[in-house]
Design a protein that fits this description.
42% of the residues lie in helices and 16% in strands. By secondary structure, it is an alpha/beta fold. It has a seven-stranded parallel beta sheet, sandwiched between helices.
Length: 236
């Protein structure tokens, strides 16, 4: 799919998401970028729409705003998520619901609602969706993050299932990032542990994720896949 003049919705455009938005903008895409509270979260690359992506009505609002501005929706990059510890002693239904709603439920809602919308588009390929999981849930789930792990694992299953349900018209894939940007609160000792467990011995950077997203949106013979971008961490 040539991205020039294609309209793409991006959620979770902070940090890595801004690089993704910037690369898609360079390709000539029209961008609609959701934000939760502060409109500045949407960044400078697209048209901002406020939304809680765990709510059906807000997702519908985003899609309608996109259609009003650009006519239709050609692509989705759903990056919005939370990343919170849920240690065993504090594990409860509230933690489960929060993670599943904001990560898994939002993925389901976007896939179904936007899938129906994309099927109305013209052409052999009517749309592309890229969801976001995590390298860890593929091989070594993080300890003390049970609810996060469960939600991100669900994203993998949903991406593959949507790919099957929407084929051959809508292509659906997922990205499973590894260590891309060093968190500001990471200690030097923790940083050494991350690098020691990564074959390439460095943080990947936001640009690598952006390249992966651009590839999946442009490729026309890839669907139902989970692309791991992790510097070899999965097999380290």
């Amino acid at each position: 799919m040539n991205l020039s003049n294609k309209t793409i919705i991006i959620t979770g455009a902070a940090r890595i998401g801004q690089e993704v938005a910037g690369q898609l903008k360079k390709k000539g895409a029209n961008l609609v970028i959701t934000y939760f509270k502060d409109e500045k979260e949407a960044g400078p690359h697209g048209f901002g729409v406020q939304a809680d992506v765990s709510k059906k009505e807000d997702i519908q609002k985003v899609i309608e705003a996109t259609k009003k501005e650009f006519g239709k929706v050609d692509g989705l990059v759903h990056m919005a998520a939370i990343y919170e510890r849920s240690p065993w002693d504090a594990l409860d239904e509230a933690a489960w619901d929060k993670n599943m709603n904001e990560i898994a439920k939002s993925t389901f809602l976007f896939g179904k609602i936007l899938g129906d919308e994309m099927l109305k588009n013209e052409g052999e390929i009517k749309g592309k969706m890229v969801f976001f999981s995590d390298w860890s849930v593929l091989t070594r789930p993080y300890k003390d993050y049970l609810t996060y792990n469960a939600a991100k694992s669900t994203v993998v299953g949903l991406a593959k299932s949507f790919a099957k349900e929407l084929a051959p018209s809508v292509l659906v894939n997922a990205v499973a990032p590894g260590p891309m940007l060093r968190p500001p609160d990471l200690t030097d000792e923790e940083n050494k542990e991350v690098l020691a467990g990564t074959l390439l011995k460095r943080w990947g950077g936001a640009e690598e994720i952006a390249r992966g997203v651009v590839y999946l949106l442009e490729a026309d013979f890839v669907t139902g896949q989970v692309i791991t971008i992790d510097g070899g961490r999965t097999i380290a």
